Structures are given as C-alpha cells and as structure tokens.
C-alpha cells in the first residue's frame, strides 16, 4: 500500500534536544584517512552541504508501512520478516508486512510491570536474541517504578532495566504474542531523583554483538560527571552476558577498585540514544550533543565502539585535544547549521541489502531527529574511517530509529509526537517506475432497502503511462474488476468498500466508503421534550419508542442510552444505561454549570442485522445570576477552588439548586490596611462553605473589618535586609558591596564585577549579575536560622538568562541538605533549594524570562510553602539541615555556572511569618519594586477555561492560546499547574503548553487547573482545563453465522464465510479467521481475505463440515460458526476422464520418470495429477505432469502406485495403477536416459474423454 508521505513535526522530547541546529554544512569534521570512492550517480544524494537529495529522484520513494502509532521508539525484524514495533508508553506491536491485516498488540509491558513513560523515560530499546528461532528470546530496555504506589514521585524508586521475554508463535502471523509470564529483569540502573524524577538523558541503544553479548548505551541523566565515574552506570556502554551476568573479559572487571562497575565496557558519553552493530562487528554509537551557542559549539558525534574507550564527555565533545579521549569517526557542528534550532543524531544501520544500487553497499545511514533528515556516510573497507557524507531524505520527520528490512529497504521509526501521529516508513527503490494515483471515486447510493444496487466508479492515472487495473472490494467478501461497476447487496448490513488500483508493479488503495443496506430501526424519544428545563437535583424520566421494520419492537440491550454534560463546544460523559426508559438524576455538584451548559440525552437502537439509528435531545438549565462581592470591594474569592476578582462584583450564571463552594481569604492587606474576615451577608460565618443556588438572582457578600496597618515591614526576626535603593557600595568597576539594613551586620562583599542599574525596578534600582562569576557574599552570619529552625525569605529578582546553572540567593554550605535559598534551577524553574538531589524543590512555574517578580518561602515546623508574586506555588514537608556558614546573592553556594539576573531586594527572617505578615511584606515589595501600586495598577492576565478531547495516552494543551493580558503581554514560560488532575498526570513543558497523560490503561474524563502570569509578574486567576475522553463503549464481540457450500467429489470450493458475519460496533478483522474443528473428508485453507477454501479429499459423495471463529478490530472473538459442505458426484453429462494403468521398470535403488498421462484421456489436466496411493518400496512424486519413482533399494519386490487426474472441467478420474518392475542393478551406458515412456495401453495413448478436449497445462 502506498500512502501519502505526511511528515510530522518534531514536537516530542525523546532525545535531549539542544538549543542550536544542524544541517551540517559548516563545522563538519571527518576522521583522517583515505576517502572511499563514491562517484556521482543518478539515484544518489549530493554531497553534504548541497541541496541534492536521493529521495528527490523518481527512483526512491518513502512509503508508510504503519500509521496511527503512539510514540513509537524502535522497530526490529523477526527472522521470518515480521516486525516488532515498540512504543514509549509500553506496548509492543507485531505486524506482518506481507498482509494488510494491521498490527496487533504483541505485549503490553504495563500489564506485567510498573512502566513509567513521561518525558524521555519509557520503553526505549529492543533486540532479538541471535537464536530467536530456537529460544524465542528477546530483550527490552525500559523505565519502571520499583515503588509505584509512593505518594511522592521522588519515592517511587525509578530505574531503567534490561528485561528478557519469550515469544509464543500461536497460529503465526500477527497472532503471535510474547509470553507475559516469561519476564526476567536481567540488569537495573537506578534513576536519580530530586523532588521528582530526572527527565532526560537515558540513552537507549540496545543491540547484540557478534560475540553474543548484550550492549546497552546509557545517558548521564543530566549530570556530566557521571560519564567519567566508573562507579555509576550512566554515560556508558554496558556489556552483559545474555543471562545478565558480567563477562569476565570486560575491561574494568579487575581494575582493583571495589567501587568500579564490572559491566562498564566504555564510558564518557552524554546521551548515546542509538547504537548499532554492523555485520563486520563494528559498533556505531550516535551521541547527542550539548547546547552551547558560542564557540566551541555543540557537536553531534558518531563513535566507533571500543573496549575501554573514553569518549570525553563532559570534558569535551567532537574531536578532543586530549589524546586520552577517543575521537568520533564523524562529527558535525551546531553553530552554522540553520533552522530549526536543535540537533539530535540517531545512528542507523550499515547497508548490506540488495534493493539499492551498488553505490549504497556498506554505507552507514544516520538521521537527525530534530532537523528531520536522513544522510549516509561512505566508509573504508573495515568501516573505521569515513569518506564523505551524502544527502538521502530532507523531509524524513522526527525519526528515532533506522533499520534495514529483509526486503533490502531502509525502515524508519517516526516518533510523531501527539498520540496516533507515529509511523513506520520505508524507503523503496523502484528503478523509475512510479506508483499510480487515484484521482477520484464515486459510490451511489450509499444506503437503501435491500436488494440495494450500488454503482462504484473510480478514476486514476499513472505517471509512467502504465495500463491500470481497478479492483473494487465490496465489504462482503466479494470483489469485481473494473473502473465502473455495479454490485447488489442482498443481505442487510453495513459494508466498508474501497478500490485498489495497480499498474502491475505497485498497488494503491482508496479510502473506504460505508454502504448501509437495509432498513434501520425507527426511534422516537417520547420524554422529556427537546429543550426542556432542568434544575440540579431533579429526577427526570427518559423514554423512547423503538421499532424495526423486520424485528418489531426493540428493547433491552438493543437500546442504549448515554447522557452527556455539554459545555461550550465539548461534552463530558455522565451516564450510560440500556432499555427503553430510565431515570436521570441531575447532579448537584461536580462540573460547574456556568456558561453554555446542558445535557444531551442520546439513544442508539441496533437491530438484528447490526443496523443502527441514533437520536438525541438537549435539555437546558433553569438558571439565575449569582453575584459575589466583598466589603471592602475587590478581595479575591475562590469559587470551586478558582479565584475570582470581585472588583465591582463577580457575576456568573448557574443552575438553580446547584451547590457551589465559595471560599474567602482569612485576611488581606489592602492599601496599607489589614482586613480580617467576619462572615457572609446571609449570616453564614464559615470562610469555606456550601452555597445552594436559590430560585432568583442573588448577591452573596464576604464581609471584612479593619485590623490595623500593614504598610511597614515587620521588624521582628529580620536578620538580613538588602534593598537596591540604599546601601549599595560602588567604585569605577561596579558594585563592591551591599549593606545589611537589619542592623545585624551581615554586609555583603562583591566577587567578579556586579553592576548597578539605577532604573532596574520602577526606578528603585537593581544589581545585575552576569551568571558567570558575579556574586555578593559573606562568610560568617549573625542570626540566620540553622538546622531545621523556622525561617522566611523574600527576593525581588528578574532572571534573564540561564547558563546551565542555578542562581538566586542562598545561605549555608556545599553539601547535601546543608543550604537554604530561593533560586531558579538549571531548567529555569522557581525553586526552594536545600542543595543536592531530593533536597531541592522546584515548582512548575518558570522564573527564567518571567520578568520582575517576588519570590518567597515560609518554613515552619518542617513545612515549607513557596510563593511567587504572593501566589502559592507549592508546599511540602522536609527536614532541612542548614549550616549557616556563607550567604550568596546572584548565584548559589557552589561554583558557577549560575543564572544571569537582576536583584532589587532580599529579606531574611529567622522565624516563620504569619499569613498577614507575609502579605504585608509582599505588598511592600510589590508596590516598591514590581510596580503594581494603587496609582498605576498592573492588571493580571485573563485565562479562560480550556476544553479538549482526547482518546487516551498523552494530550498536549496550549495554555497560552487561552490567555490575554489587558495591559501587556502574557509570559508563556510562566504557566503554573495549580491543581493536579484526578486520574492522570500533567507535565508543564515550560513553553506555554502542558501535556496531560493518563496514569493507567483506564482513560476517563478529567480536569485540572492552571494559571499564567504576564511579563510584569502578575498572575491570572486559575482556569479549569476540562478533558473529555472520547469513550469507546464496551466492545461487543462479532457475530459469526453458519454457512453452507456445495462441491463435487475431489474438487475445491472457495467459501466467503465472513459475507454474512458482522460486528455491531466495529469491523471484522479478516486476517483473524481461525479454524476450530477440521472437516472429516477434506481439508481447508484460510485465504486471508474473509474466505476459506475447502478441498474434498474423499472418493464419493458425502456431507462434511468444519467450524471457525473470527475476531473484530478490537480483538474480541466471535461465537463458533459451522460451515456445512454437501459433496456431490459429478454430473454424468460432464463425463469422467478415462485413464489406463501403466507399467515401468527400474533397477534396484534407482529412479525412473514415467509419462503416465500419455495413455489417458486427451482432456486430462496435467496440473491435477495426484498420487493417492504411495509405493511400498520407494517414493513417488509428481514433477511437471510426470510421475517420478525412486526405489529404496531394500527389496527386489515389484511395487505399485495409485494416482488420479482431472480434466479441464474439474472431473476427477477413477483410481489408476502404475506397476513397477524392479530389476537387479547392472552397469548402464552413461549416454542412456532413464525415462520410460508408457506404451499407451489399450488405446495407444489417444483415448478421448467422453466430452472434453485436450487441456494439458505444463507446470
């Protein structure tokens, strides 16, 4: 099948994509050595740097082998040519490219292990055991959780593992499965965690070498030092025996250091995502480079695997100056490579197939996931030196794996990104013959009463002018050739039809058109009326009258109801039931009823022919308006956990009887005054309460009273106080110090050359740090909290550029859990720092690029709470063990790299401030430095609710698209997850999008809340993201119906058994037909197209039968159906060919060929000659219409063979005998032949049949 070559955008993160680019024009470095000759050729690509690509020619074509895949990561071939495809989420699929049945699930690792597949984790690699045909063993490399039930992600004990499974053949084809009970974990690599699991750099190369050992390439998990540390398995090539044990000839087994891991074979790698062995034993490793923009730039490296090699990371990449490091055989630079930004190399196979021209022999294919191309390298004879790089496909898309198929084609695994966007593609060489193109199709009518006559028309063209053949498939197991044909459907049902067009070399298919033959049920919803009003808490009677022209009144499971909450332009499934009537209870809580909401009541009736009719009505809410206010005006009120601004009152429409959950803050600071909550206008005194919507419009007011001033900073416990409007000391080079205004003498001195910006924040100034060596610090602190003592910290900063390090303010010393501070981490996230591993607590909010903001934390009784611009980001429990030796502003406790930033104020308290005090400090800093004063307020951005649908797996959601800012711009990097979903997980991508993923196999509708800030740091009220799961109702198994057929004695008949079968909620899998019970006097063959061929093997008329079953496209199996066969004697008018006995002579132990048909009827068909009774002292076979007898040599006794033959009309002869005389062995003239022509018997070889002509077909 040829499909359009749709390329996918590289939007998923499988490789650690860098921030530069790679088209490889400049900066290419070749290993020294002789170049391999690779002259210009018509079907090859131009040299690297040109714009000539092999796939631009008419000879190379990219075909889609499989589509609709979910994040596929690698493809391998079984020895018989079937394909295994692994998907990052844990499923392994099996596909037979020789059929069109589609891929089946071969193994779902989620069902046998706690696989984890967020970010770059998941199912990454697969390899087939060399003795697979005998053992059935294969290996996979994936991420799992050893403690999946842990409440905190950091406690789930993640690890990457190598596991072995065993194949079960079953009935072959796509029925084969991996044995889920055969799992053996052979090797483990613990993944480092902080507050969460490290995201990236896990490698993923998995192959088996010619030495029979397993080789795994691992990444350094975003910590470069791990690559050089032989006591950890990260950034390495791991070599293992096939049972998981360590080979004793590994290079570091006996190095004398007990900490060294014996499984390490080579090291010094960053993220070696793919590694492939060539047939000559060379191991090629593709290493993804770093993210430097300046010289020396990042490099993508292809290495030659070597025992004990050190490839240099993190000390260098590309070609290294230090001879201790092993240079790559090929490397390319990012610096001048153009768009798109980023690069990620994937090494492929060395080509040894016979499909491509000779110029491709032994070239090494490689691709770039980010740039979306495929290229290849010419190699010298032993594959150790690169000659030149050539272009192959410029538009390959995000390929994550390349392999060579048994057909000689190059196969690519296209990751795709969004669920269902993945593909398996192959590059075929067609020697200038192009595939035909279907220009148009027409099918009319598409429905009607039976018998239904339908006209099918198609038009196609061929670039080569080849003659085209059209074959229409009617969906009932029959086909007809022709561009314009008619077909009559005599049985009711739904039929998927399509046309195939072939030019004799390549066949293409059209899309399907569904034909509905027969009269579907008639449905009338009798109650409630369409447009009826409802209130929360109502019980509504729902009923329908359902009849069918053939079946009469339908009821029970034939009538299925669904109730959906409609919300704007999407729906939320609510209730499903069966029967002609039910009672629908309208919920009083749950999904809010504000906006365009209602309920859709839908009924689907299915008759005995599988024909369906669906009818729906809508009922609408009986609504009033509710207004929330506060006294004084403008205090935010939460409603269902979502803050709402009450400036002038917040009014929303809602259904009568619904129970809302408003929540008022305990106290607020407004224009220098603290206000404390006293109660609601309806006399309810609970801040968090239930409010039932009355029958008329109403106003609900939260009431507050003044509780004193909040204008000045709290002074109690203030041990470090630094503001840019005073106390900054400078000289000609820049800032030299910063005076502590708290009176505790914790003054800071400068290192490097921080600069003062007088207009850094609303004219109040800021100190600029370069992210390299600029800091303000001091050793020896007075009054700062140590250990796990209570404390509070505030920072006003603008993080402008990330140099790969942390930056902000912190005090303590280097060492796990020995520091405390407010920083952005190396990913730019606002973070509470304790230093090291699980002692840092990043939030989902991006600080890098978010503009000026206030960052704060309150730590009390082992509980920390982090805020940005006064809004809570995260909280948690942790026992800090801070050692207050040193204080640093503009960096962190350890050496650079840091983060480029500007700081306007730092406040440190040695106690936990109350909520009112924290708000008081927040108000002070915000009005002075952020610019959100009462005279010129900065309005926060507005973020609307977001509604999306998904079908399971992952869903990317663009939050920025739903946001706007009335007085500025929104900051895409500032998206924050406020409340997590109930049944799934959500990941903040840091670019204005989030990714939702189901947490298990049972996807369902879900929701979570998000917020976003503007470039001035003001954050929106949280908005709800509603995810509606497109439910696939419980799958009904297909129905198989009994069949009957007639056949003549000894003949065959093809029976379209699926023609009267069906699936009420899907389609049949025609390749899944399985014989349950074999016939008694015949044999059956499954044709794969929905038909079974029965061949009668008896001698007389009889009746016979066999049974079968079939699966639907969801894998459910039908009932067992019986096929009755009536075997009849041939019509006497047909005649039976006459045959005559034959005689032959052969020496003992020798062979003789007999032309036994020479004396039989002229009408016999030589291709039907069949041996029905074998010899006693030898063997008989049929070759080209003749009988070949081989004497066994063990006896001189004469022998006899029985045969039959049929004529051109299919009539088979009576049994006929061949008598073989065995003679003693004598020497024979070598010139003599051994063919014995029969003498023709009684009729001299010219006997005629009763009514037939000669129809001898030679095979």
TrEMBL record:
Residues 437-516 form the PKD domain. Residues 1220-1259 are annotated as: Disordered. SUPFAM superfamilies: Concanavalin A-like lectins/glucanases (SSF49899), PKD domain (SSF49299), Soluble quinoprotein glucose dehydrogenase (SSF50952). This is Glucose/sorbosone dehydrogenase. Residues 1224-1250 have a biased composition (Acidic residues). InterPro entries: 6-blade_b-propeller_TolB-like (IPR011042), ConA-like_dom_sf (IPR013320), Glc/Sorbosone_DH (IPR012938), Ig-like_fold (IPR013783), PKD/Chitinase_dom (IPR022409), PKD_dom (IPR000601), PKD_dom_sf (IPR035986), Quinoprot_gluc/sorb_DH_b-prop (IPR011041). It comes from Halogeometricum borinquense (strain ATCC 700274 / DSM 11551 / JCM 10706 / KCTC 4070 / PR3). Pfam families: Big_9 (PF17963), GSDH (PF07995), PKD_4 (PF18911). SMART domains: PKD.
């Amino acid at each position: 099948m040829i499909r359009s070559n749709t390329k996918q955008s590289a939007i998923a993160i499988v490789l650690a994509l860098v921030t530069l680019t790679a088209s490889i024009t400049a900066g290419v470095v070749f290993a020294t050595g002789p170049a391999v000759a690779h002259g210009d050729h018509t079907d090859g690509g131009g040299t690297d740097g040109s714009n000539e690509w092999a796939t631009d020619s008419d000879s190379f074509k990219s075909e889609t082998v499989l589509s609709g895949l979910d994040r596929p990561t690698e493809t391998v071939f079984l020895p018989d040519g079937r394909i295994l495809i692994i998907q990052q989420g844990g499923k392994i699929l099996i596909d037979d490219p020789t059929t069109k049945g589609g891929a089946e699930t071969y193994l779902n690792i989620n069902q046998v292990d706690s696989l984890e597949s967020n970010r770059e984790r998941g199912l990454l690699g697969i390899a087939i055991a060399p003795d697979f045909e005998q053992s059935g063993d294969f290996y996979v490399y994936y991420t799992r959780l050893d403690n999946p039930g842990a409440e905190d992600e950091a406690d789930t004990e993640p690890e990457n593992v190598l596991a072995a499974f065993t194949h079960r053949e079953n009935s072959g084809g796509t029925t084969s499965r991996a044995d889920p009970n055969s799992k053996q974990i052979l090797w483990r690599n613990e993944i480092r965690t902080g507050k969460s699991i490290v995201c990236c750099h896990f490698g993923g190369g998995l192959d088996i070498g010619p030495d029979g050992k397993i080789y795994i390439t691992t990444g350094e998990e975003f910590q470069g030092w791990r690559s050089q540390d032989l006591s950890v398995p990260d950034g390495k090539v791991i070599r293992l025996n096939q049972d998981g044990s360590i080979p004793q000839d590994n290079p570091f087994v006996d190095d004398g250091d007990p900490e060294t891991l014996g499984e390490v074979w080579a090291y010094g790698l960053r993220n070696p995502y793919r590694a492939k062995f060539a047939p000559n034993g060379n191991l090629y490793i593709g290493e993804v480079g770093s993210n430097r923009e300046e010289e020396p730039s990042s490099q993508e490296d292809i290495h030659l695997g070597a025992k004990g090699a050190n490839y240099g990371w993190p000390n260098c990449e590309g070609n290294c100056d230090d001879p201790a490091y092993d240079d790559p055989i090929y490397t390319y630079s990012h610096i001048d490579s153009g768009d798109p930004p980023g690069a990620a190399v994937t090494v492929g196979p060395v080509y040894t197939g016979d499909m491509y021209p000779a110029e491709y022999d032994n070239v090494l294919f490689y691709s770039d996931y980010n740039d979306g191309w495929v290229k290849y390298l010419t190699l010298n004879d032993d594959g150790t030196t690169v000659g030149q790089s050539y272009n192959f496909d410029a538009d390959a898309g995000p390929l994550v794996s390349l392999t060579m198929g048994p057909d000689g084609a190059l196969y690519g695994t296209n990751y795709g990104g969004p669920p269902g966007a993945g593909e398996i593609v192959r590059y075929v060489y067609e020697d200038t013959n192009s595939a035909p193109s279907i220009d148009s199709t027409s099918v009319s009518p598409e429905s009607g009463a039976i018998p239904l006559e339908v006209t099918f028309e198609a038009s196609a063209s061929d670039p080569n002018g080849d003659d085209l053949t059209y074959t229409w498939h009617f969906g009932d197991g029959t086909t007809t050739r022709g561009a314009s044909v008619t077909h009559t459907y005599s049985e009711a049902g739904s039929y998927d039809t399509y046309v195939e067009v072939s030019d004799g070399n390549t066949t293409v298919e059209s899309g399907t058109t569904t034909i509905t033959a027969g009269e579907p049920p008639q449905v009338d919803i009798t109650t409630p009326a369409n447009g009826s009003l409802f209130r929360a808490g109502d019980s509504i009677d729902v009923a329908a009258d359902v009849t069918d022209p053939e079946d009469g009144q339908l009821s029970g499971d034939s009538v299925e109801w669904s109730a959906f909450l409609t919300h704007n332009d999407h729906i939320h499934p609510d209730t499903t039931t069966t029967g002609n009537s039910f009672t629908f209870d309208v919920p009083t809580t749950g999904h809010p009823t504000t906006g365009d909401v209602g309920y859709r009541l839908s009924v689907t009736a299915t008759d005995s022919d599988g024909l369906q009719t669906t009818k729906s009505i809508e009922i609408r809410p009986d609504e009033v308006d509710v207004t929330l206010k506060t006294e004084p005006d403008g205090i935010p009120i939460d409603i269902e956990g979502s803050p709402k601004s009450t400036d002038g009152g917040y009014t929303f429409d809602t259904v009568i009887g619904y129970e809302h959950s408003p929540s008022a803050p305990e106290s607020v600071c407004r224009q220098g005054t603290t206000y404390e909550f006293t109660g609601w206008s309806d006399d309810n005194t609970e801040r968090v309460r239930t409010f039932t919507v009355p029958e008329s419009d109403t106003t609900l007011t939260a009431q507050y009273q003044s509780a004193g001033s909040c204008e000045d900073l709290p002074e109690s416990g203030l041990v470090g106080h630094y503001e840019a409007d005073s106390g900054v000391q400078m000289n000609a080079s820049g800032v030299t110090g910063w005076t502590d205004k708290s009176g505790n003498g914790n003054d800071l001195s400068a290192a490097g050359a921080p600069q003062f910006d007088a207009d850094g924040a609303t004219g109040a100034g800021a100190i600029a740090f370069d992210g390299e060596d600029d800091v303000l610090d001091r050793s020896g602190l007075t009054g700062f909290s140590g250990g796990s003592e209570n404390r509070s910290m505030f920072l006003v900063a603008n993080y402008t550029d990330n140099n790969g390090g942390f930056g902000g303010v912190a005090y303590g010393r280097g060492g796990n859990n020995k520091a405390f501070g407010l920083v952005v981490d190396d990913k730019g996230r606002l973070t509470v720092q304790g230093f090291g591993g699980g002692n840092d607590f990043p939030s989902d909010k991006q600080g890098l690029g978010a503009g000026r903001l206030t960052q704060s934390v309150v730590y009390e009784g082992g509980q920390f709470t982090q805020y940005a611009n006064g809004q809570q980001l995260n909280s948690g429990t942790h026992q800090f063990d801070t050692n207050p030796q040193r204080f640093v502003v503009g960096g962190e406790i350890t050496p650079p790299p840091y983060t480029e930033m500007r700081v306007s104020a730092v406040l440190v308290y040695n106690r936990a401030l109350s909520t009112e005090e924290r708000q008081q400090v927040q108000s002070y800093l915000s009005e002075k430095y952020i610019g959100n004063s009462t005279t010129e307020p900065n309005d926060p951005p507005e973020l609307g609710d977001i509604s999306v649908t998904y079908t399971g797996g992952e869903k990317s959601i663009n939050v920025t698209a739903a946001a706007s800012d009335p007085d500025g711009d929104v900051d895409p990097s500032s998206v924050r997850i406020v409340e997590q979903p109930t049944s799934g997980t959500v990941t903040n991508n840091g670019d204005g999008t989030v990714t939702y993923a189901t947490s298990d196999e049972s996807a369902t509708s879900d929701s979570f809340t998000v917020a976003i800030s503007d470039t001035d740091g003001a954050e929106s009220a949280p908005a709800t993201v509603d995810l509606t799961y497109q439910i696939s109702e419980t799958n009904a198994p297909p129905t198989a119906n009994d069949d009957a057929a007639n056949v003549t004695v000894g003949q065959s008949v093809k029976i379209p058994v699926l023609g009267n079968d069906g699936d009420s909620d899907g389609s049949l899998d025609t390749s899944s037909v399985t014989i349950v019970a074999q016939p008694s006097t015949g044999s059956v063959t499954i044709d794969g197209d929905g038909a079974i061929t029965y061949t009668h093997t008896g001698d007389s008329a009889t009746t016979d039968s066999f049974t079968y079953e079939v699966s639907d496209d969801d894998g459910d199996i039908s009932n067992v159906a019986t096929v009755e066969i009536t075997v009849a004697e041939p019509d006497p008018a047909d005649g039976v060919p006459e045959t005559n006995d034959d005689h032959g002579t052969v020496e003992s132990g020798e062979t003789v060929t007999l032309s036994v048909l020479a004396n039989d009827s002229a009408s016999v068909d030589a291709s039907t000659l069949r041996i029905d009774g074998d010899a006693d002292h030898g063997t008989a076979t049929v070759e080209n219409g003749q009988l070949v007898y081989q004497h066994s040599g063990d006896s001189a006794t004469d022998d006899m063979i029985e045969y039959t033959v049929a004529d051109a009309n299919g009539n088979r002869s009576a049994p006929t005998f061949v008598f073989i005389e065995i003679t003693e062995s004598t020497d024979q003239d070598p010139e003599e032949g051994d063919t014995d022509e029969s003498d023709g018997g009684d009729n001299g070889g010219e006997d005629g049949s009763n009514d037939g002509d000669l129809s001898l077909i030679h095979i």
